[in-house]
Design brief:
By secondary structure, this protein is mostly helical. Helices cover 82% and strands 0% of the residues. It has a single domain (22-146), classed as Four Helix Bundle (Hemerythrin (Met), subunit A) (Up-down Bundle), CATH 1.20.120. It contains four helices and no strands.
């Protein structure tokens, strides 16, 4: 009888430990995605401010690193996230790629004028910011449901 009680206690304790570990891992993935999105938003605001000749701080955003994190979770996010969140991450990544391609193509026609380049930088920053903000509310709402 004591053996059965000890085994049952150990089973439930281990089960609880595994659930906590899974929750912590999922939370860690959400934090990485949120940090990447926040880094992209920081880049967008800094780029927009600089193109408008406004003050911006000297901390350089890690745009490429944030895009790599986003690309990774756009590919393998279905292993960790709910379908809605995974789709939102994919939508952000696809839309950023489309925006970058379109602006790069259109910018080539105006390559000699520095003022026009600044306008294109601002346009890119605003488009990326708006894309992320559209999906961020959904990601936060769904993440709070999943992590309860």
């Amino acid at each position: 009888m004591t053996f059965l009680a000890a085994w049952t206690g150990a089973y439930f304790a281990f089960s609880k430990y595994r659930k906590e570990q899974k929750w912590n891992e999922k939370r860690s993935h959400y934090i990485k995605v949120t940090d990447a999105l926040e880094e992209l938003l920081y880049w967008a605001e800094k780029t927009r401010a600089e193109s408008c000749f406004e003050y911006s701080n000297s901390i350089e955003p890690k745009f490429d690193n944030a895009l790599r994190v986003l690309s990774k979770y756009a590919e393998i996010g279905d292993l960790t996230f709910s379908p809605k969140i995974h789709k939102a991450i994919q939508n952000i990544k696809i839309r950023i790629s489309q925006i970058q391609f379109t602006i790069h193509e259109e910018r080539n026609f105006d390559s000699n004028d520095p003022n026009t380049q600044s306008d294109w930088d601002r346009h890119l920053a605003v488009e990326i910011r708006d894309t992320i903000n559209e999906q961020m509310a959904l990601i936060k709402r769904e993440a709070s449901k999943e992590l309860k």
